[in-house]
Amino acid sequence: MAQILVLAASPNSDVLPALGLLSHRVRVIPAQPAALVSAPVADLVILDARHDLVGAKSLAKVLNTTGMSSPLIIVLGEGGLPAINAEWGATDFILESAGPGEIEARIRTALGRGKLVEKPDTISASGVVIDEASYSAKVHGKPLDLTYKEFELLRFLAQHTGRVFTREQLLSEVWGYDYFGGTRTVDVHIRRLRAKLGDLESLIGTVRNVGYRFNTSLEDNEYASSEY
Description:
The protein is of the alpha/beta class. It has helices at residues 53-65, 100-116, 148-159, 167-175, 184-197; strands at 3-8, 25-30, 44-48, 72-76, 92-95, 122-125, 128-131, 136-139, 142-143, 165-166, 204-207, 211-214. The strands form 3 sheets. A 5-stranded parallel β-sheet has the order 2-1-3-4-5, with helices on one face. Strands 6-7-8-9 form a 4-stranded antiparallel β-sheet, with helices on one face. Strands 10-12-11 form a 3-stranded antiparallel β-sheet. The two termini are 36 Å apart.
């Protein structure tokens, strides 16, 4: 079962009717750049391009430049086929009339392509090395003494370098949808992580009034000392 994010042109539109017959977990958000700021992490993104090819193509380009690396499938009507080309940066396309068998096959194929370019078990960034297999991390070769949640938070941010996540998103993705604590928990763990990173603390940056991100370099630090 995959986590699928559907970017819908309108709130009540049924972008891919037969998708509801499959067992995947589907979440729907507006097909607008502003909505991507708080978009949940997904294994696969489906973009509605049935009625606005120009707008959908622009949004597809935004997806490819904002750190959202999940496979992208474009949903089209028959008349939209001539507009599809490599400039969209999509993994695949599908007609809105597709049945559940075809949808499942295209999802499986898209996810399979994503696995071919999966990142290795070790994540390295500016002196920080995260070993996913052993649940350990090092700074300049020295092991970090991290709790499980601190490691999960560091790993999640590092896996999505440069992408900004709200506190609510981090709470959902790292602590889980069934966690009932407040977003203050995220701030506390961020503060502890920065303390343990030492001179590399600024790799975890704060984007004011939005949330946190893992910076691509120390020069990308944008957080203020008055914030967590």
